[in-house]
Amino acid sequence: MPRFDVVLSTDRSLMTNHHGKEFLGFGTTMPLILPRRFIQWLFCPPIRHRDGVVWQAPYSLRRAEAALVAAGIRAAVIDPDYVPRYVADGARVLIVRHHDWFGLNPPTSTWTAFIDKEPLNVVLFREFIERVRKLKDRYDFKLVVTGPAVWQWLHKPHLVEEYGVDVIVDSNGDREEPVLVNVVRRLLEGKRVPKYIKVGVPDSTPMERMVPIMHASVNGLVEIGRGCPRRCAFCSVGQRPLRWYPLDFIEREIEANVREGVDSGILSCTDVLLYGSSSVIPNPEAVIKVNKLAKSMWRSVGWSHCTLAAALVNRRLVEDVAHMLIDGEKQKLLGVEVGVESGSVEIMRKHMPAKPRPFPVEKWPEIVEQAFALFHENNIVPAATIIVGLPGEREEDVVATTELVKRLRPYRSLIVPMFFVPMGPSRLGREEWFRRIKPYHVDLLMACLDHALYWAERLIDEYMTEKRFAIVRRALKWFLSRVKEYRPRVEEKLRSFAES
Amino acid sequence: MIRVPEDADPREVEEMIRIATARGCKRISLVVVGRESRVLDRLRPVIKGCIVPTLGLWIASSEEEASALEDEDLGELFA
Ligand code: SF4
Q: What is the pTM of this model?
């Protein structure tokens, strides 16, 4: 077994490749309404490893690992079940990264607002950190926690003491590798570091300090840029400067995946259609180049996110890229997460006036519909988010969103409602949490559920065509049939829960 | 580096950070003597809402330890 001075890890809800299907990751945020063993197998099965050194690891852990190794530090990403062995074998720093430590982020927090059962990811993290706590009693190592949602520890300060957290590195919506390397160096040298480090915007990591990953990331996800020009008030990454990674950097990261047998991947950033652009107008040449590069190295390519407005600015670009990626043979669909957020022009104007740009904000509902139609025609499947309970939201805003969701029924997609959470580094970070569900919110939640039930079965068939997915496909369909069966009870429960 | 009493009013701390930032400070160390959970709880609004500048919160268990921290340079973490 190799030895490392620094071990990076996280719990099973993230240390998995979700059977190679990224969207199944959503399932880990669900409350345990069905037997845990089944849910855990379906949404976050263990990942292959050798002596605990994992085959695929969450991208951000890979970036931190690469930066540490480049700095001459012996570090590796280790499966959570093997952390005790490496700590016992002399690791002096354990870095844990997560994006929802206590289930305070959406969608986890959305479920728990009305279902009285713990979500799987919350249970898995607690079990993991309690094991770490016990290890701290026996071995001398430092515990560093980091990641975009690390502000959640500020809401559970007693747990910082209880679990023995030594350092909290808050990247504030940016990449934190350079500061993490210095923190680790100082810890290894026995020097002091602050309890909480919050990386301000002027210290955003510049491109020249970024180190590409050396080993495979979960489902081949590679980042192609950072930051966002639209600066929505509720969003943390939008507060950071826009930086696009050069093609050779991206190529090295795809290579790291291909070398280790990951033959499909995901291009990740806030808007793949804006790759290489410094405004909200796509740069077609750059977008084609980055997608062509990915397709030349992978069987199939997904996108993490894009914006609906950018898609409509250059329809031809969307058609061309879809045509290039979706070859019918190796790839039948292109999945992407998009933000619809609201059907209300007023809410858009107040909290995200730049999201529809270059189109006027008054056109937002039309932009959404037209972009969904464009995606549908080109076999692009959006998984859209809706934000419920933004500050200043009125009944008519929610009704407008519900109507928009209903108008989107003809287009192949999923729509996920999320309750507003005042996230740390966003401009709404000090606002109140959304807690009061009204009957009109229930109408919206049910419209989203009905949309999902309408499309989910077809999507499972189209998305999981390979034979190796036969069992998972059957399990998902069974799961779906249970949700359909429970639909009336869900509505009844929600209505009784809602304040009139 | 700003010394902050354990029971400081978060709004006052925020104001100190605002003044320091206006004077051109890019990185600020806050040094507090006290119990970790209490300090984090009390300063939550200050830390959570901060986007600029970079903040380092040092929590010391005694005045002597806090004095020793005065030599620490947050800038080294960004070198
Ligand atoms: S468009 Fe998306 S990534 Fe950009 S600021 Fe808005 S929510 Fe954030």
A: 0.94
